[in-house]
Amino acid sequence: MAGGISLKELAAELKLAPSTVSRALNDSYEISEATKKKVISMAEKLNYHANPFARSLRENKSKTIAVIIPERINSFFAQVVDGIEEIAQEQGYHLLIYNTHEDLEREQKIVNLLLNGRADAIAMSVTSQTSDVSHLQKLHDRGLPVIFFDRIRSEIPTTKFITNDYESAFEATKHLIQQGCKNITLLTLGKDLSISKERQRGYNDAIKSEGWELDPSMTLYCSHEEERNVELIEELLLSSNRPDGILASVEKLAFATYLAVKRTKLRIPSDLKLISFSNTSIAGILNPSLTTITQPAMSIGNECANLLIKKLTKPKQYELIDQVITIPSKLTIRESTLVE
Amino acid sequence: MAGGISLKELAAELKLAPSTVSRALNDSYEISEATKKKVISMAEKLNYHANPFARSLRENKSKTIAVIIPERINSFFAQVVDGIEEIAQEQGYHLLIYNTHEDLEREQKIVNLLLNGRADAIAMSVTSQTSDVSHLQKLHDRGLPVIFFDRIRSEIPTTKFITNDYESAFEATKHLIQQGCKNITLLTLGKDLSISKERQRGYNDAIKSEGWELDPSMTLYCSHEEERNVELIEELLLSSNRPDGILASVEKLAFATYLAVKRTKLRIPSDLKLISFSNTSIAGILNPSLTTITQPAMSIGNECANLLIKKLTKPKQYELIDQVITIPSKLTIRESTLVE
DNA sequence: TTGTATGCGTTATCAT
DNA sequence: ATGATAACGCATACAA
Fold it and tell me: Locate the HTH lacI-type domain: which residues (chains A, B) (predicted)?
């Protein structure tokens, strides 16, 4: 459709062989400075742009990174994508985006699609439904560089970037305890996700470290539907054994909690203290402002892109070794956990 | 890197000619059902995936749409991208993302990059710095389908999707007036942006429709730096002629207003009523909850993708005619404009 | 219905 | 320092 001019046409215009022009444009040492100058200026004049597909076909690489995320772009994934995009653009890489919508089948389809080489590398965060990992295994077996972030699968021996979910959840729970909470509920999404497990473990250990008994009914499994979650939480808040502290393992559950609280007579933080994993920039203008554990989303994105590009550029020097790299989250205390 | 098997190898395995295999996989009418079945099953067995670059080179199309956005992915652009992604994935298209970071030079660079045919079509929202549109003109001249959304440039004769900025700003201002505001300030970003102009016009006309005098000092030009904006707004709120109503033309200026108000003794909505263009899902849990004009971001994304894909699929039937398509925004009244 | 040959636009190998 | 030629993997015009 676009149809600029080709290398051959440019060469004809210059009365040079295509190979010479190619070398000149690629700044080969075999070409004289004089012709290089001529070629480059003519290329600019005629607005020549190398056909990326011919080049990709020839060189067997695309200068493209694919990012697969599991849900609608929320503040966390938006920041990760921004972080990846920043580095990619800087390094002349292109960015493909795919959304699995928490659907394993879509994830498999997309992963299979990428097996054809459209992208040189992949950064992904898996679906909460991802039980079977054979599609991911295949990706890795084929030698396509893959990195996981946030929602990782340890079965695949590659580098993964996460935040310190365990420690953060531990710290968050301890913070609630320090602020006087005696009865803390964890709001979480699933049991399968790596991050859920780690956050649950952090919560569990914090409770146990007080010598308290761990009550399984104090972990509330929520869904992906907001209204349903609000109902669940409201029910929880109206129950006889209602919590005086809540740790929301993802942002949207904190928002659901605000909505649920609105439906009751309870007040944050006097009746209920709330802390949440969250990347929203407006935690500070919620009322009361929300104490958060902020994941270093932008940094995670940056690191993913940096490592992948290094691996692509210098495959011998950089290996995607099987390790989990942890970038710490940051606890920001605000009004929602204040002692009044 | 990835290196699956090629068509030729697949053909060899099947003891068929590559062309036959190609046709079978493309479901050509010339091929018998029997061989089609054989070919397809073998292709699956050997995990054959057509090389996208060879195909793109041959067919001169990439099944790829590029999206260019001007800033970090915020709730509006996230929703637009989600909307585009949804349709693209459904139709087997790939999505490239580029961020110009409000920088004209980057915009030019990216646009020039896309001149080489890497994407079949482009959906974009321009930079607030975009004064010179020659790079956009070139894109269009080359016949590359381009659509603008939200931040459009009317100089380029193509289809643009926006929301009813003028009417919404008018309605929003009228709403403030109905709620008793006598002194309304418009917070805006620039004077160059299409959307800013329209929203300003809507505000102006609403003020004038009351028979009031239009006071230029009641329009506050903000920056892209949050802290600076908070200071500007705080100053405004402490001035002798402070407003009793604010219309924020973009979300982040509403957030800045919340922060500025926090620093004063004023209260929303009793001392100051606030309404904002915004796509945040949490307008309802701000305190007080925020009256918003919600842009149909997801729909805008859907429409962009749909039209582009139609144009690509049936170029004769669908033209990107020079028109502006308006999808209305929705006013949702919440506490921040309540009469107490 | 299937096979053969060509070309898409590059880059790399081998000449000159 | 430059030119001729082949090859990347695919789809298609042409041949059988």
Answer: 5-59
Range of A27's domain? 7-50
pLDDT digits (tens, 9 = 90+) for A67-89: 999 999 989 999 999 999 999 99
* Same domain assignment for residues B288 and B302: no
- How far apart CA B17 and CA B19 sit, in angstroms, is 5
Beta-carbon contacts of B309 under 8 Å, excluding residues fewer than 6 positions away, are B65, B87, B88, B91, B93, B121
- pLDDT above 90: percentage of residues in chain A: 88
Q: Which residue has the tokens 């930079």?
A: B127
Task: Determine contact: A48 vs chain B, CB below 8 A.
Answer: no
Strand D neighbours (CB under 7 Å) are A 15-20, 23, 29-32, 34-35, 54, 57-58, 60; B 6-8, 18-19, 22-23, 25-26, 48-51, 54-55, 57-59
A44 with A79, same domain?
A: no
Asked if the C-beta of B116 comes within 8 angstroms of chain A's C-beta atoms, the answer is yes
Identify whether A2 is part of a domain: no
Cα separation, A185 vs A195, whole angstroms: 17
Token readout for A338 is: 């204040």
| A121 Cα to chain B: minimum distance (Å) | 9
Place of tokens 């560089």: A145
DSSP for B282-329, written as a single string: TGGGBSSPPEEEE--HHHHHHHHHHHHHHHHH-TTT----SEEEEE--
> Testing the interface with A: which of B53, B71, B286 to mutate, by most A Cβ within 10 A?
B53
Does residue A171 belong to any structural domain of this protein?
Answer: yes
C1’ C9 / CA A290, Å: 56
In a shared domain, residues B271 and B319: no
Over residues B300-333, the pLDDT tens digits come to 999 999 999 999 999 889 999 999 999 999 999 9
Q: Any residues with CB less than 8 A from the CB of B2 and at least 6 apart, and which?
A: A115, A116, A117, A142, A143, A144
Q: Is A134 on the interface with B (CB under 8 A)?
A: no
Asked if residue B262 is part of any domain, the answer here is yes
The verdict on whether omega for the bond into residue A288 sits within 30 degrees of 0, i.e. cis, is: yes
Q: Are B251 and B279 in contact (CB under 8 A)?
A: yes
Q: Is the CB of B294 under 7 A from strand C?
A: no
A1 pLDDT band, cuts 50/70/90, is: very low
Q: What would the pLDDT profile of B63-73 be if each residue is shown by its tens digit?
A: 999 999 999 99
The whole-number Å distance from B29's CA to D10's C1' is 19
Relative to beta strand B64-69, strand B121-124 is parallel
Residue B297 and residue B79 in contact, taking contact as beta carbons nearer than 8 Å? yes
Q: Residue A143 pLDDT > 50, yes or no?
A: yes
